[in-house]
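Researcher: Please translate sequence to structure tokens.
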Amino acid sequence: MTRTGIFGGSFNPVHFGHVRLAQALVERKWVDEVWLMVSPQNPLKAQADLADEHVRLELARLAVADVSGVGASDFEFQLPRPSYTWRTLERLEEAFPDRSFTLIMGADNWRIFPQWRRSEDILFRYSIIVYPRGGSAVDELALPPNVRLFHAPLFPWSSTVIRSRIRQGESISGMVPPAVAKAIAQKRLYGYCRKEV
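Model: Translation complete:
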């Protein structure tokens, strides 16, 4: 079976941290492929400043267009909202019986994982990969057997920081793939006001 990593998120916008993490997981053979699962509505996040889901999907697809083994998916767009991960995983299993699914999440989400809907069911049925996030330490020795810590480098920015820089007219070069920066400028997303990409 193809080992598919599900990397869910708002990707508002997608950035190099997302892309390089997914790429590293494939290159190091922790999974065979990674799907960036663009969430139309995260039940644990405020919706303010959230770009349209189809725009965020377009940016994610631009970001991974040339990255082997990594794709962007709109699978959750067809599911009831808000987007609960347990429901997504169940539906993915039904739709793709030739794949086994692994959930990819940041240490910040692992810290609040017990708040997720049916978190115990997810933990019982699926393997989970946790990656480092600043300010959220993970005790690797205390992780359940089916949860592994992926020692990926920390990136010093987030989608929130990128949106703030865009609103202030500051450069986001080096933070997002060039195709994503170009699309943000062309569509005037996130309050874009710079004269140059």
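Researcher: Any highlights?
Model: The chain has seven helices and six strands.
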